[in-house]
Amino acid sequence: MFKSSRVKWLWALLFGLIVITLLTIKLWQQQPSLPPLPEWHAYKSIFLSTEGRIVDSGNHGVSHSESQGYGMLFAFHASDHESFQLIWQWTQKNLQIRNDHLFAWRLHPSEGISDINNASDGDILIAWALLKAGEAWSEESYLQDGQKILDDLQRSVIRQWQGQTILLPGEYGFEHDGVYTVNLSYWLFPAFRDFQRIYPSPDWQALEQSGRYLIAHARFGEWQLPPDWLQLGETPQLATTHKPRYGYDAIRVPLNLVWAEIDDPVLLKPFSHFHKSIIQLGSHLPSWVDLANNQLGEYDAPAGMKAVYNLLENTPRSEHLTTPSMNDDYYSSSLMIMAKLASN
User: Fold this and answer.
1) Structural domains counted in the chain
2) Alpha carbons 255 and 238: distance in angstroms, whole number
3) Full domain range(s) for residue 68
């Protein structure tokens, strides 16, 4: 009798182990498969401090919501849970100090925070990273934190302009007398797609529509490129508050399009045409173009910009264009990794 009970107990235990194993395998198979991101290890060794701050080496060593968002996004794609949490904790403690769930846009290592205005691209990147990690790693707190950021973004920086839903770069300082100043590189199309899937709202689809519209209509200069900063009054115009350049910000416009698999030739052709034209001229690839007079910047485009152009041309990228090094600053290195992610 005792042996019979023990055998039954062992069979029940074995059956339970089999069920748990099968369920674990099924759950593992359902987790999204991320391509490897070896570039992250070089990136974090250069730019990630021990306390969780991503250091902008090209801008006096400051940190900002954008850099923290990139760090979290890259750590997620590298499946680096520890670094993700480290960066997020520093960001919460040091930048999430407003009366809402958005982030003060910049912290100077010695001067601290002098302006608690937010930067919408940083907020979007942080929320995106949180939602992706929360979903993939089954971490409910990340999902909740991401949703709170999105709620406050919708409240504070989304406006209407001529029937288009637009995104202000920050809560304060970008709207005067019905005229808006926007930055088209803040239209992070792949993030909007994930926002719509995880926390649906008409705003995300409307922002994708307005982004496409503005990229198609806000074109200036010989190569018909969008500016880093755009003014929306009666018509789209070069912003009077900034230099009339296509450069370090606007290079992210084609990157964001490709990242979201928006392969509309009408939207992408100007960037590719510019790249090919400069090569045919035998000139250096500039870091910026003055859209008012077509003057080319005297400095070469950094490796990160070149990685974006190579992404557009679907050409192989050499190792020095994909792996951050001490010769590349924070922003160029970030562009390299984003180009890698967009190509997967």
Assistant:
1) 1
2) 21
3) 36-156
Q: How long is the chain?
A: 344
Q: Determine the pLDDT at residue 318.
A: 46
The whole-angstrom separation of Cα 69 and Cα 46 is 16
Q: What is the pLDDT of residue 309?
A: 96
* 245 and 290 Cβ atoms separated by less than 8 Å: yes
Assess if residue 126 is contained within a domain: yes
pTM of the model: 0.89
What per-residue confidence (pLDDT) applies to 299? 92
Tally of CB atoms within 10 A around 197? 11
194-230 residue pLDDT tens = 999 999 999 999 999 999 999 999 999 999 999 999 9
Tell which residue, 60, 80, 81, 85, has the closest CA to residue 68: 85
- List active site positions: 66, 121
The CATH number linked to 71 is: 1.50.10.10
Could you say which DSSP state residue 23 is in?
A: H
Describe the crossing of helices 65-77 and 120-136 by its angle, rounded to 10 degrees: 20
Residue 130 maps to a domain:
yes
CA atoms within 13 A on the CB side of 313: 15
**Within-domain flag for 185:** no
For the stretch 10-28, pLDDT in tens is 555 555 555 444 444 444 4
